[in-house]
Structures are given as C-alpha cells and as structure tokens.
Write a structure and sequence with these properties.
The chain has 160 residues and is mainly β. The protein has one helix and twelve strands.
C-alpha cells in the first residue's frame, strides 16, 4: 500500500514540475514545447481569438536541425532556449516588443576554431505553408477547419 502511495506521489510531483512553458501578453499567448518549439500561438487582439497551430513531428519549429535545446530562462516577458553542439551555442530567444512576439535566433562559437559548417545551418520554422495550387489559398469559407494536428477549430476554412 505504501509503495502505491509513493508511486502516486511521485507521478503527481512530475506532473507539477512539467508545467507548460508559455509567454503571455494582452496581445497574444504562446505555448512552447520543452525543446523550445512553438506548440501554438493565440492572437488575442481579434474579436474571437485566433489560434495558429505549429507543426509537430519532424517539421516542428522553430528549431535547429540536429540540436537539442532546453529552457534557459522564462519570465513574464521572455523565454529563452539554448543548446550546445561541437562548442557552438544555439539560442532561440522569444520576447515581447510592444505587443509583438519577437524571435531572435543566434549562434555563438565558443571555441577558438573557425566554424564553417559543410552543409550550412538548418532552421525549421514549424509553420505549415503548404499551398496546393493557386487560387485556393485566397479562398475562405465560414465553418470549422482542421489544423495541422487534426484538431477542429472554429473560424474559417482555408484552401482545399
């Protein structure tokens, strides 16, 4: 019996520690994954708040290809994620500037060696920008739409 209680207590503590990372202002609300990607962005300036869902899986973002980021700093005005690979510090800094979400992406060479990546640096933004054909992306229909995660959202249906 005590073993079950300790296990339940441990699970509850883990859930409390893994609170969602977010940045909220009067204009918007952004939820992040533990690795610094945006889960979704809510624009609170509309009469009915509009939610923009970011991609998941291999196309999630913003993120650096092949670099694992973790939370460095989080407060009411700023959320920073960073990671290190081969003495290069990769950093994504999300912060508010007059009601606008700003994202600063930076790399810092922390070694004495010249940094010259053979294939460049890959940054995935995580936005679903696929457009089947013209002019479908300009057409909207009132109703519900499915976002890229398969959830149904109220608002407009975009494209085909």
């Amino acid at each position: 019996m005590n073993r079950i209680l300790y296990t339940l207590f441990g699970l509850i503590c883990c859930l409390i520690v893994q609170a969602q990372i977010k940045l909220e202002t009067p204009s918007y609300l952004v939820y992040f994954t533990n690795q610094g990607e945006i889960s979704y962005y809510i624009n609170k300036q509309e009469v009915q708040p509009d939610t923009i869902y970011f991609r998941s899986g291999k196309n999630t973002g913003p993120r650096f290809e092949g670099v694992r980021l973790s939370l460095q700093k989080s407060n009411k005005k700023q959320v920073i994620f960073n990671g290190k690979k081969n003495n290069i510090l990769y950093k994504i800094d999300y912060h508010d500037q007059k009601g606008i979400l700003c994202v600063n992406i930076s790399l810092t060479n922390q070694s004495q060696k010249l940094f010259m990546p053979e294939n460049g640096i890959s940054l995935c933004l995580g936005l679903n920008t696929y457009m089947d054909k013209f002019p479908e992306w300009n057409q909207t229909q009132t109703g519900s739409r499915q976002n890229i995660h398969g959830h149904t959202c109220q608002g407009h249906q975009y494209g085909g």
